[in-house]
Amino acid sequence: MERKTLSQLFSLPVIVAALGYFVDIYDLLLFSIVRRPSLIALGVSEDQLLVKGEFLLQVQMTGLLIGGIIWGVMGDKRGRLSVLFGSILLYSVANIANGFVTSVPQYAALRFVAGVGLAGELGAGITLVSETLPTHLRGYATGLIAGIGLLGAVFANFISKIFDWQFAYFIGGGLGLVLLVARVSVFESGIFLTLKTKSVSRGNFFQLFTNWSRFKRFMGCIFIGLPIWYSVGILVTFSPEFAKNLKITGDIGAGDAVMYTYIGGAIGDLTSGFASQFFGSRKKIVGLFMFLTLLSIILYLFPLANTPGYFYTACFGIGFGMGYWALFVTIAAEQFGTNLRSTVATTVPNFIRGTVVPLTLAFKYLRGELGIINSALVIGIFTIIVAVVALRSIDETYGRDLNFEEID
Hints:
This protein has helices at about 5-10, 10-40, 50-75, 80-100, 105-120, 120-130, 140-150, 150-160, 165-185, 190-195, 210-225, 225-235, 240-245, 255-280, 285-300, 310-320, 325-335, 340-355, 355-370, 370-395. The protein is an all-alpha fold. It has one domain: MFS general substrate transporter like domains (Growth Hormone, Chain: A), CATH 1.20.1250.20. Helix 2 (about 10-40) runs antiparallel to helix 5 and helix 15 packs antiparallel against helix 16. The longest helix is centred in the N-terminal third of the chain and has 30 residues, at about 10-40. The chain is globular and about 60 Å long. The termini are far apart.
């Protein structure tokens, strides 16, 4: 790349968005990593660890769902930067407080608050970067943001092995507060500032449901990400339980499963972002990664070996397959006009995260009938089918000029 191109790609908005996503992923996945030790410390019995873990995950994801709407609307009404500041402050304080919980109800309340806060980070960052950088760099930039950001899960696992679960939460909250200082130097999107001078409705969430074209685009953007959070919310979060049922030899730690998954995810997101630019298509690359996700799910649930090495390799494969996360958020941002862009780019990833609630409920119901492995397979195939149908329903957005509004 030319020096000018590199300077734009590594500009302050991109770097800060990447670091913000790093902290976001650290805090979001920390619960999955410290689920067992934290619940044991709170007096939860071994036979209730899965049930209580599902409950807390559902509470956290419900917070993300609600927060996605709040921060998305605020991003279009008040600006992208207001969301970046407000959301990170909320989840940082909530995570620090999380280190002081003494009961499951307290744990649940703070995971909900943290979920609301975490909802604003990625969508606002991707929206700001998409509107700041030239068209030919968007895919590279979002791939870079995700590639760096997803390594937050690796860091969370590293911290959890050195410190106890309470201090791991303190570190996550502290990182967020430090990031607030870096955010001071970031400027608002010029496209949004221009929009503020126009008499156009901004951040009207219900506007997404009053027009069939907008509604179809919105739902399509949501459902193409469904396999990603099925993989994280079920296969990876409950990896110790899956390993036990698959008769994997040796101990399997949720933290290590998360780490290898997100190393794969970081490489996958870099690959998908760069590939979308090289081939000039978002949809073709997303479709390819959906196929890789399906293949990885099958290799995870029906292992070719029963060793920890194979199991963690399968987790890496799942991570690489779901490495279209940032690309799918970019697609959502590119589908809609400036007056609804933050609303969509922030709600879409959090609605997908929120689908963990019905998915885990379905998993809980089906495993009583089919067992843990077959129920996970049924749900996984269902998410892939829905995602493929959704991908076919939305427009190709590669190279699209983003300086337009949604007008009724």
